Amino acid sequence: MAEDLEISKGSKEEQYENLLPQIEGLLTGENNQIANLANVTAALKEQFNFFWVGFYLVDTENELVLAPFQGPIACTRIRKGRGVCGTAWQQEKTLIVPDVEKFPGHIACSSLSKSEIVLPLYKQGNIIGVLDVDSDKLNSFDEIDEKYLTQILKLLDN
């Protein structure tokens, strides 16, 4: 079945408002986690043209492993507490980093990444990974991104 994404213009909030029901439609009736993660990353990349967007999933109690993503080649494994992703996982909270060069222990998978937001991904109350979104511009992410990306992640917790 072919799926078309309606790309919207307008403010960041308007774009998320338009995208949210489309992502919900993509996920409805599909139980395969990899397929759903892949469609979420593709939709976010298509709508916002983020430099990199993808998931890391818990592989062992101390390591995340790369999952579906859109963008340049990425780091394959990230230890708990390392970099933005590992820290967000360890702390189980969203991290917004306006300038990745100023984040202690930042893992530079790409020198072109300038700012980042990482959100925990939950399944039935347990953290199973993180959503990582990178921009090639400084200060790209804010509370609007956090609000809507959190809503998108809640759609995956079914």
Descriptive overview:
GO terms for molecular function: L-methionine-(R)-S-oxide reductase activity. Residues 32-158 form the GAF domain. Pfam families: GAF_2. By secondary structure, this protein is α+β, with helices and mostly antiparallel strands. The protein has a single domain (12-156), classed as Beta-Lactamase (2-Layer Sandwich), CATH 3.30.450.40. Helix content is 35%, strand content 27%. The protein has 4 helices and 6 strands. The chain has helices spanning 12-27, 33-48, 83-91, 143-156; strands at residues 52-60, 63-70, 77-79, 95-97, 115-123, 126-135. It has a 6-stranded antiparallel beta sheet with strand order 3-2-1-6-5-4, with helices on both faces. A hairpin with a 2-residue loop joins strand 5 (115-123) and strand 6 (126-135). Helix 1 (12-27) runs antiparallel to helix 2 (33-48). The two termini are 22 Å apart.
Structural class of the helix and strand makeup? alpha+beta
CATH architecture: 2-Layer Sandwich
Strand-residue proportion: 25-35%
Rg, Å, rounded? 15 Å
Number of domains: 1
What is the CATH class name? Alpha Beta
Q: Alpha-carbon distance between the termini?
A: 22 Å
Question: Uncertain runs with pLDDT below 50, 5 residues or more?
Answer: none
Number of distinct helices = 4
| Secondary-structure element order, N to C | HHEEEHEEEH
Oligomeric grouping of the chains: single chain
- From the spread of the alpha carbons, the general shape counts as globular
